[in-house]
């Protein structure tokens, strides 16, 4: 204990946490400072100055004491207690002024008050421990006086509280009474902890007498009984009627049996008598050091709640359970010190310290290894489902994934304030940082992964119907106008489209305007403006998920702030959202389009023509500088040769269950094969469950299906994508007609559309479902793929298509539809997303070509996402991975920048919020919350103290 008086501890206990606290608060301040009134800015500056003075003063004092080779004394402790208590009082009483109600909560995901309490409490606790060490010499001290004084503090609170309740102190002397009560609360709380820890320390250092007799009662009580009792009370096993339904835990979710097992094992190891045999004592040291991480974790978790222990003792009578982790910490550290002292004469200092350090790293390393395994398992599953390598076969550990998904769901609920709920303090933060990159996994993806790999079914699943028109009372497009000019330098049109939207009636208010419109090939969105007040606010080109998150959070405020969002919904469909449209006030927004040829734009039923016939027609292919991407106008495409390919059935057989499938499928397939495709060739077969196994030509699909294990669910999305991938990568004289054979088509995991794969199906944009009634139902590949089409034709004669560049040596086939098209000159060749061109339009052609290439090579998403986004930002051209977002104030823009940094550092397949039909989740705008883990670093070093 005397070792804690060494000044070098201050760098770990005080300087480190204060640096983290300052950095986290500065990060919050940089986002919200533009929204703060002058008095709040002054408070932030004073708080920052106070932290700076405290940190620099303490570090300077520690340096001076080190040079003098002097220990910390009572004066240091009293000054530190006074300063830290004053800062915490300032944080508590000025919380409403520091973060005014005008600041949206989503911009402050971590309460500065909670951060301050978490990171200043180690300094306060250390100051109290220094006082205990200063006034309790080794081997001296009486237990009973300290114990009585400690118990007297709660009793004094009860008596003084009753007395003050009888007298009108707050009426006669309001300010004096408030100050005196605050001072009394602080001093009595510090005194309570001083005498309580002093009692524990005296008991822990006794070697005979009281310790050999009734002292064991204290050790069993603190090390074994009270930890188990505290876990039971926290989880509601005990006193649930008194505390109410706590939903997971008062201070966190510690309901896992492992917490009880570790608590019992830790208590037994600390209560066992020290073995006189050095070898067994060394084993005891290893076990006690290995479980010290458990003790340290709960000490750090409960450190900010220590001031609540006295009220909890008075109200519930169980406040001593809050104190248990700190008392256990004192006992555990003292025991490790005794083990070190006893073993060093036998084994030497180095070996004993090696055993100690090795034991201390057991739990942290095991936890990190477990979380890292969860990360690898999850990311492999996400890559397989959402960014697969279609050219490779993959198999995953479904059991490990199921465990990981369960852990993710457990950690998913975010804590609110001091109520941790199902959140595990610090562990959930560490898990979210290491496994989820500080983002989240949406319920939709969680359900997909469980269905795909574990065969679970969605309850009451129904295919989503096509969207209907907006209700009559929604904001409507009033006017649609445009101006176009031809840029001879880049040989393209520059058009500005102006939209005016308003409510249909003046009394309506606070609505969102949404619309979608199609753009032709060779047309890029290159700028965006939203009129806010009397100014035109230019949209910021940002990463798509970060922009959508910020927009959703602003809408969730319902505070009539003004964002506008422009993004791609699929390859050529653009979505526009403007909020709010209030009363009769019209909202104005502008969109700039770069396009190679004139075209007709249709928005909400209104049409206008962009460009005119003054520019020369585009009769020849236009290529990028490296000739990797081509733009073919309708005229240029019409000059390509016409060819007619031969179709073949590609049956996708649902192999997710094995109840008589070969026999059931055979009748349906044979009946369908009797209706031969004109000029058709032999059919192909793929077995589909969690994986897709395409059988070689001529294989016996019945025998293969009977042997196929039932891996997981029916992952139809992956199967269709792989068929389209092969068709696009290896264009030939035949093309697939996809037919899905399943007992439960609605239970399949099926994407909403395959619009981005359109270059792979030039002949037809439908696939078919062959149901148990032997009906052949058509489904669209372009939109709402789960919903059968009412009027789609059955498979028939193959339509003619255009072959590029020649019919003899084709590298791509194009639909003969009188529309312009983008073509990859070498479909199998890799594209570089960071390439540049001589004009913005050609740069847009490069970006659009890379987007098409990336659809068929999603395994490159994480590796090439950042260069692709940077190229999009430099050119100022919208892509499927970016969005234009117009914001009202600088705080929103700062929040967008912070969120974008977070999303770009994470796995591209993770989410920032739930689906659009669910309330947005307030995930942090920075990863700073993870720094709270460093609050325990200072305390961890206490285990390494030497006599």
Provide a descriptive summary of the structure in words.
It is built from 29 helices and 24 strands. It has 947 residues and is α+β, with helices and mostly antiparallel strands. The protein folds into six domains: 1-139, no CATH class; 141-205; 208-382 and 930-947, no CATH class; 476-623 and 875-904, Sandwich (Immunoglobulin-like), CATH 2.60.40; 645-799, 3-Layer(aba) Sandwich (Rossmann fold), CATH 3.40.50; 823-874, no CATH class. The strands form six sheets. A six-stranded mixed β-sheet has the order 17-16-15-18-19-20, with helices on both faces. The longest helix is centred in the N-terminal third of the chain and has 32 residues, at 174-205. Residues 207-212, 241-246, 414-419, 460-466 and 917-947 have low confidence and may be disordered.
* Shape, per Cα inertia axes: globular
* Beta-strand content bin: 15-25%
The gyration radius over C-alpha positions equals 34 Å
Q: How helix-rich are the residues, as a percent range?
A: 40-55%
Mean pLDDT: 84
Poorly predicted ranges: 207-212, 241-246, 414-419, 460-466, 917-947
The strand count comes to 24
Strand order of the largest sheet: 17-16-15-18-19-20
Structure class = alpha+beta
What is the rounded distance between the termini? 8 Å
| Biggest sheet features | 6 strands, mixed
Q: Helix tally?
A: 29
What is the domain total for the residues?
Answer: 6
